[in-house]
Design a protein that fits this description.
single chain; alpha+beta; 6-stranded mixed beta sheet; 5 helices; 14 strands
Length: 261
Amino acid sequence: MRLICLNTWGGKIFDPLLQYLSEQTPTTDIFCLQEIFSSADGPEWSGDTRTHLDRDVEKILSDFDTRYALGQKGFDKVGPVSFDIARCEATYTQKKYTVLSSRSVPLYVFSETSTDPRKQSSSMQIVEIAAAHHAQFTLCNIHGIAFPVDKLDCEERLLQATRILDVLAKIKGAKILCGDFNLMPDTESIRMIERAGMRNLIRECGIQTTRSTLNPWHGTPQQQNFADYVFTTPGIHVDNFSVPVVVVSDHLPLVLDFELR
């Protein structure tokens, strides 16, 4: 099976993003996407955000089972807005597989009435999938706390990591944890997940960066080379893992080829 994980940047690089998804559709079984925005009545664009990105992607991935998990309401990528909008995690699974369940778990929740764009809550989408020969696994799609922008440990991020592990501990069987964690590799938050027994494929495969040249700090002393991760449990046999240089967002896609053992 092939999984592609990507923070879409709210569709800011719209046409190249849709072209990439379309090109990958024939060979991809699952897409785990972050920053998918949805709006019933908003304008097409707001603050460099494609507010109807959910509809656009669904047209490309029409042969996939689509599941959304609410991240936060009321914000585009820049800040609060006056119209209905939601930022979601989204998982798209080829319909030849069976999605057994899908739910969203809050990880760290700021006040829902806050208008501070730095206080955006985080959540984890949990999707149970039945693959060939009735083998099952659980896919966890995360968009972690975005601020502070240094992507270092803070009280909120450490609590978020604890919450992730508490949830995972209650899920039996093979698991894949992936997404935009907004964390650097040597943080305690990442080490906590590693100590829990999950393989960190970014570290294990010697990946040098998960950020594209479009990220705001590229080429500056503040350049941050990491944010995105894929972790697996022993029930997932990794055939290949790569982070191709495909510039359709400020993040690069993470591509995992795997089997269930």
